[in-house]
Fold this sequence. Notes:
By secondary structure, this protein is α/β, with parallel strands linked by helices. The protein has helices at 14-20, 25-31, 66-74, 96-104, 119-125, 179-201, 206-209, 212-218, 226-230; strands at 43-44, 51-60, 79-85, 92-94, 109-116, 129-134, 146-147, 151-153, 156-158, 163-167, 170-174.
Amino acid sequence: MPGVIVTNPPKAEKKDVEALSGYGTATVGEAMGRTGFLGTHLRPIQQGVRVAGTAVTVLCWPGDNLVIHAAVEQCGEGDILVVTTTSPCTDGLFGELFATALAQRGVRGVVMNTGIRDTAELRAMGFPAWSAAVSPQGTVKATGGSVNVPIVIGGQMIHPGDVIVADDDGVVVVPRERARDTAEASEARERKEAAARAAFLEGELGLDRYGLRDKLKKLGVEYRTYEEVES
């Protein structure tokens, strides 16, 4: 498997990445029209952590992490390493030693569409990780691959330099050209939800706030007393 290592790809603006870091994946995905979610199979190995950073993408051969070593050199401050393989793989392609090297370079976390290992050590060192599997299965270093090329995870295209947002709910990708607009839309959504939250604390119902009573009526949904239903 030949490959290519692309150096210095364009990245989303730092100020837009930092703005997006203040919002959860649900908010960011909704702000983009319910898009960008990389799938339910990517789960965090830790809890209570939210990160945002620019993607350094990796395409590996299954069971082979050679090109991840090459990717480390391409990573820098504020990046998130995003790895997938040419076909499904649950082997532990990533562990503590990789995390140590990446943390030294200022990388904010890793997203593995494969297996990950050394999870206790990763949690202890505070290196955030999301993966499709946890496995102690080792790998080889025998096949080429690519770094900083477009990859697909969960049906979503990820380009190098796109923004990755990850938290307890999962992982979302924001195309770098949409980063600023998405940050602004996320802020607007947060304001809207804050207003709704305040209203709910005062006792207002979603049925009334969102005009859902009329929608139920139009759909033919009826209210009936227990006695009417049982008679």
